[in-house]
Inverse folding.
């Protein structure tokens, strides 16, 4: 008998963290400097743990290892995705990730990273960095060499509900006052391009300029992946991104909806509201796995969901 599998997040305290995850979702965070909740994670540095049901107390990594049938028997040493909620109380460093090919060649067979961000909440006049303004690779190297960061980095205003698709090779950074949901390839390969000249314990953090310049897409190309909002009886649905690593869909349910799980696995992130999924109560901040072969999920209530497969 197939069941919905709910997870408890792994929390990470960081210099730039805050307490919005407690304020918004009632999470018992370890401190007022909680920057990351790894809500769907099989990463050995922090696993999400099943809450209730048949698999209570098991980690996602254990399910992946010993219950591959829950994931339709798909191949792979690691669960392919990592999903986090991030609460940024300060600017994060400016980063770029390599693609699979570059990571494989330069990072001991590692994986690249494509990711996406859904803005859960942000302060007024908040912004984000996506992309850069150099027209050629030569100009990119020149601007980086001369430290012309304000000119180079592309700052965009953000609002609650905005979505950004960030393929490997895209310069990106989260900035102060932003709470977001991040869906990404399960990989650790990150190159730091710029850290605002800040010091940590008296030292600047390590930058990876050479690797960054190798992998940055030049010129930057905006990726507007979101499809139209389609209105159906009782709910609206919008495909935010459909790519080789993940498909992300937004559901705005006003009364009820049927969600079909026809993939090896599907993740559901409850963004706001409350209601039920097949008679199980859910509320904002819940993150769950719908296993292979589950069939149709009946959702009721006032719910904003993000689904990923
Ligand atoms: Zn990133």
């Amino acid at each position: 008998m197939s069941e919905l599998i709910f997870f408890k997040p792994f929390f990470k305290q960081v210099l730039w963290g805050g307490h919005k995850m407690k304020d918004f979702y009632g999470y018992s965070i370890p401190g007022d400097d909680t920057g990351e909740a790894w809500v769907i994670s099989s990463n050995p540095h922090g696993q999400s743990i099943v809450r209730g049901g048949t698999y209570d107390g098991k980690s996602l990594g254990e399910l992946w290892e010993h219950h591959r049938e829950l994931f339709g028997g798909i191949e792979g040493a690691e669960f392919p995705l990592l999903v986090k909620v991030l609460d940024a109380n300060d600017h994060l460093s400016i980063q770029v990730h390599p693609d699979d090919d570059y990571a494989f060649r330069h990072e001991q067979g590692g994986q690249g990273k494509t990711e996406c961000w859904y803005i859960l909440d942000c302060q007024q006049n908040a912004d984000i960095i996506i992309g850069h303004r150099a027209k050629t690779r030569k100009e990119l190297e020149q601007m980086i060499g001369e430290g012309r960061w304000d000119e180079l980095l592309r700052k965009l205003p953000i609002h609650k509900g905005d979505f950004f698709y960030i393929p490997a090779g895209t310069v990106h950074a989260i900035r102060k006052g932003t709470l977001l949901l991040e869906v990404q390839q399960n990989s650790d390969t990150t190159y730091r391009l710029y850290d605002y000249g800040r010091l940590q314990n008296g030292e600047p953090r390590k930058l990876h300029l050479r690797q960054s310049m190798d992998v940055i897409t030049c010129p930057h190309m905006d990726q507007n992946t979101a499809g139209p909002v389609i209105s159906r009886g009782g709910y609206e649905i919008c495909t935010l991104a459909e790519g080789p690593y993940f498909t992300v869909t937004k559901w705005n349910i006003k009364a009820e909806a049927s969600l079909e799980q026809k993939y090896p696995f599907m993740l559901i992130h409850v963004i706001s509201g409350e209601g039920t999924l097949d008679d199980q109560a859910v509320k904002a901040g819940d993150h769950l796995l719908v296993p292979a072969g589950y069939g149709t999920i009946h959702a009721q209530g006032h719910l904003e969901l993000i689904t990923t497969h």
